[in-house]
Amino acid sequence: MDALFVSTLAVAIAEIGDKTQLLALVLAARYRKPWPIVAGILVATVLNHALAGWLGAIVSGWVDPQWLRWGVALSFLAVAAWALVPDKLDEDEAKAPRFGPFLATLVAFFIVEMGDKTQVATVVLAAQYDPLWQVVAGTTLGMALANVPVVLLGSRFAAKLPLKAARYAAAALFAGLGLWVAFTGLPG
Fold first, then answer.
1. Where would I find the H helices in the chain?
2. Cβ–Cβ contacts within 10 Å for residue 79, how many?
3. Using an 8 Å Cβ cutoff, are 136 and 6 in contact?
4. Best CA proximity match to 124, nearest among 5, 1, 11
5. CA atoms of 119 and 3, how far apart (whole Å)
6. How far, in Å, CA of 155 to CA of 64, rounded?
7. Tell me: the pLDDT tens digits for 72-83?
8. Cα dist. 178→64, 69, 104, 170 in Å?
């Protein structure tokens, strides 16, 4: 259950103020149909993070455990530094496709999540933790915890998010994970 818990916590904190959260707000404001947007977020996240997790699990099998340990530690530290940089939604990303809310959300989230810090965190978490399904379930749950309230409550809630504090908390969490792996090694 460590994989599920750590993955959920890491991604939920890292997602606050992320560009995909801003995209959720834009889609909620545009379509005003929260449940198809929530479903699109969940399906896109499961698909994207399953691919990322699979990649992390494959890489962990190819790399010598000592190199993997330091690679994971450095990756967590890099994500910690990245978390300190505020995300902004580009104008092109704010324009949803002309499809309905579910398909627009599914496509937009899947694309915007490519190379995002939460996807990178999923790769790193999958390289570190077993079983893979718990990592993917945890990262998906973390995305849902951060994005569903934004979709359901809209701009009133998003304006009250303590984004700076969330970035610092995410950076501290990932730095702590990086140092923990560096000093104790990989679990299991």
1. 2-15, 19-31, 34-62, 65-83, 91-94, 101-113, 117-128, 132-158, 163-184
2. 24
3. no
4. 11
5. 15
6. 47
7. 778 778 877 876
8. 18, 9, 35, 12
The answer to whether 65 touches 110, Cβ cutoff 8 Å, is no
Looking at mean pLDDT, say which of 20-24, 63-67, 127-131, 161-165 comes out highest: 127-131
How many Cα neighbours within 13 Å face the side chain of 85? Answer: 11
Confirm if 151 and 24 have CB atoms less than 8 A apart: yes
What is the enclosing helix (H) or strand (E) of 100? none
Q: State the Cα–Cα distance between residues 163 and 60, nearest whole angstrom.
A: 33
* Position 36 confidence tier, pLDDT thresholds 50, 70, 90: very high
Residue 65 and residue 87: Cα distance in Å, rounded?
33
pLDDT(130) > 80: yes
pLDDT per residue over 72-124, tens digit each? 778 778 877 876 776 565 545 445 456 789 998 999 889 888 878 888 889 98
Are residues 106 and 45 in contact, defined by beta-carbon separation less than 8 angstroms?
no
Exposure pattern of 142-179 as b/e (b: 16+ CB <10 Å)? bbbbbbbebbeebeeebeebeeeebbeebbebbbebbe
The tokens of 172 are what?
Answer: 């501290």
Q: Token pair for residue 148?
A: 């569903």
